[in-house]
User: Fold this.
Amino acid sequence: MILIGGLGGFILGFTVDPYFEGGFYAPSLARFLIKAGHSHGMPMAFFNLIVGPLVDRLNLSDKGKKYLSYLTLGSFIMPVGLLLRGFTGGAMTFAPVVLIGALCFLSSAALIAKGSLAK
Assistant:
């Protein structure tokens, strides 16, 4: 995911020139959403890398650790949904996909907080 996000960033960077009209960056909604998919994909990949070794150190039940792992993986759904929205010209069809990924991310963060604060 880090490689895909990085490659997407290079592609976005090399194709940015036509979007500067009159000295202002004026991207279309589709390009903005694709950029948001790239911008959210990289941190989600790093989040997964951080949570992986952290799971066993948290004071959570085995079931809680399993949920944390699944929810952390589910957070990848958000950048995928943003990319899908961008590739479809900003269609709201994939907005629920983005929301599901965001809820997975927030839920996993809440489980990390619960497991690190519990005695």
Remarks:
- The chain has a mean pLDDT of 87.
- The CA atoms of residues 2 and 46 lie 8 Å apart.
- Helices lie at 2-14, 29-54, 62-74, 77-87, 95-117.
- The radius of gyration is 17 Å.
